[in-house]
Structures are given as structure tokens and as C-alpha cells.
Amino acid sequence: MTKEEILKAAQSSKEDIGEYEKTVVRKSLAYGSAVGVGLCMLMVLLELLIFKKIDFGKPALIFAIAGYADFYEGLKCKITKKKIKGIVELVVAVFGVLLYVGAFLV
User: Fold this and answer.
1) Angle between helices 57-77 and 80-105 (to 10 degrees)
2) Can you give the pTM of this predicted structure?
3) Which of 13, 28, 47, 89 lies most in the core, judged by the most C-beta atoms within 10 Å?
4) Element (H, E) at 52
């Protein structure tokens, strides 16, 4: 084996590991945002049942993070479903911020 062949083999194995790491990071972000959204929904439901009021700040923050991540991934990877999901989550985040601010004004 020549030096060039060894170098090509090493570079190709690095690229494979890089693609695998990118896939793992993408999936971990997707699962993490889904868990965050679910946990925020649970927290809002518990606040409503126990304290009879809702703080929309936490859900707005989680939906903003998840929405931006989904929209960005959809934009860069040209995945229409991800873009739409991101836009919907960002709209929910904006409504959450409006309700959060509105609670202080009342």
C-alpha cells in the first residue's frame, strides 16, 4: 500500500464517522426538543390543575427553541415538513410570549 492509498483510506473513514456524528447530533436535538415540549406541556397542565393559573413563559421558550431548530434544519436540508413544523412552533411561541406579557398587563 502506498502513502496515498493509506491517506485516502484514513480520510474516508473520518468522513464516515463525521456523517454518523452528524446523524446522532440531529437525532439527539430532535428527541431533546420533543421531550422539552412534552415536559413543558405537562408542567403547564400541572400548574393549571394545582395553582389554577398558567405561566406561559416556559412553554414559549421551549417552543421557540424547538421551532427555530426545526425551521433551520428544514431550511438548510430543504425539508418542507421540517420548515412547516418549525413555523408552527414559532407561531405557538409568539402566542405564548403575548399571553405571558398580557398576564402582567392585567
Assistant:
1) 160
2) 0.67
3) 89
4) none
